[in-house]
Design a protein that fits this description.
Length: 176
């Protein structure tokens, strides 16, 4: 079980590296209208609960991340259309990620070593596809920003990546 938790934590860190900071410009009414992923049955823990960010699911963590970065990036009303498109891709990616981790966690107890590696490969491929969807959405937002705001976004993303790399390095040192 400890191996599963460590593996899922590593995969979660990799997955979150691709989640860039952006802002939440939607009203609370449109948030309420967003479809939600059904919660796992009672007693079924999310495979992501060992991740250090508050929240039980990737979807919950992404919403917190979106809100935090909204303030940091200073998204303007003129950028709301691009932002909303980007935020929706982030939300869909989080829903998909939750489902992939739940599915893997359900299959994990019966996997042999080869199936384990194949499952990890599938998670990595799925992650790469999610990043490919995210890049154009963020690029549209980034291109709508004035130069000073782009520089701020560059700093925010760089600082987030440095924190995650530092956390991943500490995690790897602690395994020895």
């Amino acid at each position: 079980m400890k191996l599963l938790e460590n593996h899922l934590t590593s995969v979660a860190l990799i997955a979150l590296l691709a989640l860039p900071g952006a802002a939440l410009a939607q009203s609370s009414q449109s948030l309420a209208a967003q479809p939600t992923t059904p919660q796992p049955p009672a007693g079924a823990a999310s495979p992501m609960t060992s991740h250090p960010v508050a929240g039980k699911t990737a979807e919950e963590r992404v919403e917190r991340y979106i809100k935090e970065l909204h303030a940091r990036l200073h998204i303007t009303p003129a950028e709301e259309t691009q932002w909303n498109q980007f935020a929706e891709v982030m939300r869909q990616n989080a829903r998909d990620m939750d489902q992939a981790f739940i599915q893997r966690a359900e299959q994990f107890p019966t996997m042999n070593a080869v199936q384990n590696l194949q499952s990890y490969e599938q998670l990595a491929e799925d992650h790469a596809q999610r990043v490919q969807k995210l890049i154009p959405a963020f690029e549209n937002l980034y291109n709508a920003m004035p130069e000073q705001q782009k520089q701020l976004a560059d700093q925010v993303f760089r600082a987030n990546a440095e924190r995650r790399m530092e956390g991943a390095a500490q995690s790897h040192r602690g395994r020895g």
